[in-house]
Amino acid sequence: MSTARTENPVIMGLSTQNGQLRGSVKPAGAPGGGGGGPQQQPFSQMKGTINNGSSQPAPTTNAVIKPGDDWKKNLKLPPKDMRMKTSDVTATKGNEFEDYCLKRELLMGIFEMGWEKPSPIQEESIPIALSGRDILARAKNGTGKSGAYLIPLLERIDLKKDCIQAVVIVPTRELALQVSQICIQVSKHMGGVKVMATTGGTNLRDDIMRLDETVHVIIATPGRILDLIKKGVAKVNQVQMIVLDEADKLLSQDFVVMMEEILGFLPKQRQILLYSATFPLSVQKFMNAHLQKPYEINLMEELTLKVHCLNTLFSRLQINQSIIFCNSSQRVELLAKKISQLGYSCFYIHAKMRQEHRNRVFHDFRNGLCRNLVCTDLFTRGIDIQAVNVVINFDFPKLGETYLHRIGRSGRFGHLGLAINLITYDDRFNLKAIEEQLGTEIKPIPGIIDKSLYVAEYHSESGEEVKP
C-alpha cells in the first residue's frame, strides 16, 4: 500500500470547476523549495570553504570606496530572478535594506546575494533583532528566514573581539551547511568575519583545530555544539545572540534536553531568536522559561498552519484513500487548490456543484482515481468507500452528530480506520462539548502512529498484527 503521494499522474479531461484537481506529481521524499539562498553544493566542495578560517572568500572589489562614490555600481549582482513569487515574499511594507542603517559592507553582500528588498519576515525581524530584543517568529520555509536573522547577527558582530559572538542552531546537517554558505557570502565584504559550520557525522578533531583559531559565528546541530562546549573547546561565555532555526523541531523530545543544556552554558544576558513554522506546546514552554518579553511575529495564518500540518500528515501516514472535511463550500475549493499546489492529487465535492459533476467526482474517487477528497458534510451520510482508511477534520465540526458521521467514513464494514482533527484555539469549546456529548476522549496525535491502528494489511484474519 502506497503513501498519499500519487506515483502515476492520471490524465484529466475535466476542468477544475468540476471538483477534480491534479497537483504536479513529485517523487516521494523530494525536498521542497529552498529559502532563496545559493544552490546547495556537495559537502566535499564546501568543507574547506566553511571549516577553514583562512579560506573566507575575499572581497570581490579591492578598490577603496570614497565618500560620494556610487558604491552600488561596483557590485557584481547575480541575474535578476524573473520567476513569479507568492505573497509570502511579495506582500511587503515597501522597506529597503538601507532603511535599517546597516554597514555598507554588509549591504554589499546582501545585494550581491540577489536580495533586492526585504521580505515580510525580514521587515518584521531585522529592526527588532537589531534592538537586542528576543523574538518568536512564525513563518514558512522559503520566505527569507535565514536572512531575517543573519543580517542583524552580522551587523552586531564586533571584529575587534576574537571570540564566538553568535550561535545558530539548526536540526539537520544539510541546513547547517546551507545557512553557513549564505552567512559567508553575505559577510564577504565585511573584512574578516569568521564563520564555522559544525555538525554530527564529521571529524571532531578538525572542529577542535578550527576552534583554536578565531571564530565569530558558529552554525551547528545541537549534539555537536554541545559536545564542543562540554569539552571546553567552543567557548561561548561571550555569545550575545543565539538563533534556533526550525525551533519546533529543535524543541521536540529529540533535542529539547540538549537545548536546555546549551543555554545553561551561555551568558544570562543573551538575545534569543526563535523561528518556527508551527507553534507546538514545547515552543511555548521554552519561550516562557527562557525568553524575556519576546516580540512575537506571526506571518502564518490559520489556513497556512493547517495546510503545513496536512502536508506533514500526508508524508508520514500510510494512506490508501482519505476524506478531508471542511465547514464551507468556499473552504473546500480553497483547500483543494492548496493541496494540489503541494503536489498531491485531490478531488473536491460540495453542495453548490452541479449534480452531474458531483456524480462524476464520487464515481472516480470510488474507483480509486485519486487518493484525497475534500468535501463538506454533504458527504457524511450513506457513503461507503471501503478503501478510505483516513478521515481528517480540517475544520472541526460544531455538533457531536456531525463528528460521528464524519469519522464513520473510514473503517467501513469492519475495516480499520483513523480519524484526525486539526484543532485551533477557537475550537476548544466545541472539542470539549463533543467529548462530553459522546462520552469519549479525543486524544492528542502521537509522534508515531501505529500502522496496525488503521492499515488493514498489518492485521491477519485472526486479528493479530502482522509484522512487515
TrEMBL record:
- All copies of domain DEAD-box RNA helicase Q, residue ranges: 95-123
Q: Which family does it belong to?
A: Belongs to the DEAD box helicase family. DDX6/DHH1 subfamily.
Q: Which terms in the Gene Ontology molecular function aspect does this entry carry? A: ATP binding; hydrolase activity; RNA binding; RNA helicase activity
Its GO CC terms are: P-body
What Enzyme Commission number does this protein have?
3.6.4.13
Q: Where is the Helicase C-terminal domain?
A: 309-453
Q: Where is the composition biased (Basic and acidic residues)?
A: 67-79
Where in the sequence does UniProt note compositional bias of the Polar residues kind? 43-63
- Alphabetical list of Gene3D superfamilies matching this protein: P-loop containing nucleotide triphosphate hydrolases (3.40.50.300)
**Native source species:** Salarias fasciatus
> Iron: present as a keyword of the record?
no
Whether Ligase counts among this entry's keywords is: no
The UniProt entry, under InterPro entries, shows: DEAD/DEAH_box_helicase_dom (IPR011545), Helicase_ATP-bd (IPR014001), Helicase_C-like (IPR001650), P-loop_NTPase (IPR027417), RNA-helicase_DEAD-box_CS (IPR000629), RNA_helicase_DEAD_Q_motif (IPR014014)
The lineage, from the top, is:
Eukaryota, Metazoa, Chordata, Craniata, Vertebrata
For this protein, what reaction is catalysed? ATP + H2O = ADP + phosphate + H(+)
Q: In what residue span(s) does the Helicase ATP-binding domain sit?
A: 126-297
Superkingdom classification of source: Eukaryota
Localization in the cell: Cytoplasm, P-body
UniProt region (Disordered), positions on chain: 1-79
* Motif window: Q motif: 95-123
Name-wise, this protein is RNA helicase
What are the UniProt keywords, alphabetically?
ATP-binding, Cytoplasm, Helicase, Hydrolase, Nucleotide-binding, RNA-binding
